[in-house]
Structure formats: C-alpha cells, structure tokens
Amino acid sequence: MSVANIRKTTEEKMVKSIESLKTDLQKVRTGRAHTGILDHVQVDYYGSMVPISQVANLSLADARTIVVQPWEKNMANAVEKAIRESDLGLNPASMGETIRVPMPALTEERRRELTKFIKGEGEQTKVAIRNLRRDANEALKRLVNDKEISEDDERRAQADIQKLTDKFVSEVDQVLQSKEAEIMTV
Where are the annotated coiled coils located (predicted)? Predict the structure, then answer.
C-alpha cells in the first residue's frame, strides 16, 4: 500500500463518518415534521419486521404533521401501533385509512436534552475520525519498517493526515452547530 492509497482510504472513511453523523442527526426530532423521523420505525408485516416506508406512503400535511397512508387497508392498525410504540414520543391519530402524526412542540428541557444527545453523537464521530488517523499513522509506520518509504516521507504523510483530521473534526463541529441552532429555535 502506498502513501497516496493510505490517505485516500482514510479520507473516504472520514467522509463516511460525517455522512453517518448527518444521517443520525436527521432522526433527531426538532419540532418540525420530517418524514425521515419515521425511517427506523419497524412494522409487523405478516410476521416479519419491515421499515414503515415499505408498507406506507409518507408525506407532510403541514410543517408539524406527517401523513402516513398504508398501501393495504388492513395495515393501518399495525402502522399506527408501530409509530406509537417507537421511542419517538409520537401519538398518531387514525382518520379512516390515513394516519396523521402531529409533531408536539418541544419543551425547553427537551431541547436541552436533545442538544446534549447530539453533542454526544458528535463526540463519537470525532473519536471515530481520530481512530482513523491512528490507523493511517500505523500503516505509515509499517511502510517505514518495511523500508518502502523514508522517515521524512512518513512525517510529511502524517502531517497531511493530521490536516485531514483537523478538517473533518471542524466539519463535525459545523454540523453540530447547525443542528443545535435548529433544535434551539422555537
């Protein structure tokens, strides 16, 4: 493996870490309706658990209401039960074949809890990024030990990996800052 390959692989993994953080933060409720909130809700569909998006159409009625329309009439009760029993704190209401899911306004205390939660998620992502830096540096040391690169090349590559790490850690901070602002906006 060459220095360029190590850098490229490390950068790709760091990008994936950021994408994973963004995906996780989309699931955090901000008081505004967002169909992605229901992504991890599983519905019992004839004995097997499937994501809600595979048994129903999800749309927004307004800024605070998600509309769920099951494709099969007999699935309405199962979908409603799955949403109610999820850890999201939502209370769906059936209206015939359509299920309306109003998003309750967040209290100040709940906003602070969510802010702590997203900071924890961000910290985990930073740790993952730093672990990737460590792995890259170990790979560089192996190249030096195998006499494939010089120690000067190793130091330059380590400095490059550190710049990459700093860039992605600051990107995590930016993502967290924007999500925190979104949560704290009343």
Answer: 129-167
In this structure, the answer to whether residues 11 and 48 fall within a common structural domain is no
- Tell me: the pLDDT tens digits for 123-155? 999 999 999 999 999 999 999 999 888 889 999
CB atoms under 10 Å from CB of 70, counted, come to 21
Instruction: Please state, in angstroms and rounded to a whole number, the distance separating the CA atoms of residues 149 and 2.
Output: 9
CA 158 – CA 71 distance, rounded (Å): 54
DSSP 145-178: HTTSS-HHHHHHHHHHHHHHHHHHHHHHHHHHHH
Which of 102, 133, 154 finishes a domain? 102
Q: Does residue 56 share a domain with residue 16?
A: no
Q: Residue 172's domain spans which residues?
A: 3-27+107-184
* Cα–Cα distance, 120 to 32 (Å, whole number): 22
Regarding whether 40 and 23 lie in a shared domain, the answer is no
Which residue type sits at 92? Answer: P
Is 112 in the same domain as 180?
yes
Burial group, residue 109, by CB count within 10 angstroms (0-12, 13-18, 19+): exposed
